[in-house]
């Protein structure tokens, strides 16, 4: 797949003030008034984390690039939820 203008997408990524590791990807910078009110209420105050140009060959750390780009094109935003952390439980040594 070639990198034409059609498969490149500008993206602004904002960090949530309410939830660690929750990020909001926007197709347009500071387009918060276009987002669902309940989303913004739960997200809190957005802080710009970075600006990227997305394209299919650019991997994202925790998200599928095609899924993010499709959501940005369809909805204008993509919400990255924090990872589900599973605690590692270790049995301590037992002495009898």
UniProtKB/TrEMBL annotation:
Q: Which domain of life is it from?
A: Bacteria
Supply the name of the protein. YcgL domain-containing protein BOW51_10385
Q: Where is the YcgL domain?
A: 9-93
Classification via SUPFAM superfamilies: YcgL-like (SSF160191)
**InterPro entries to which the protein is assigned, alphabetical:** YcgL-like_sf, YcgL_dom
A UniProt-annotated Pfam family:
YcgL
Q: What is the lineage of its organism?
A: Bacteria, Pseudomonadati, Pseudomonadota, Gammaproteobacteria, sulfur-oxidizing symbionts
The record's listing under PANTHER family reads: PROTEIN YCGL
């Amino acid at each position: 797949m070639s990198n034409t203008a059609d498969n490149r997408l500008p993206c602004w990524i904002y960090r949530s003030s309410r939830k660690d590791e929750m990020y909001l990807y926007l197709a347009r910078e500071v387009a918060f008034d276009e987002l669902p009110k309940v989303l913004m209420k739960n997200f809190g105050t957005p802080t710009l984390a970075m600006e990227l140009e997305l394209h299919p060959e650019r991997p994202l750390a925790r998200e599928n690039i095609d899924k993010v780009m499709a959501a940005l094109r369809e909805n204008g935003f993509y919400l990255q939820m924090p990872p589900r952390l599973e605690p590692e439980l270790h049995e301590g040594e037992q002495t009898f």
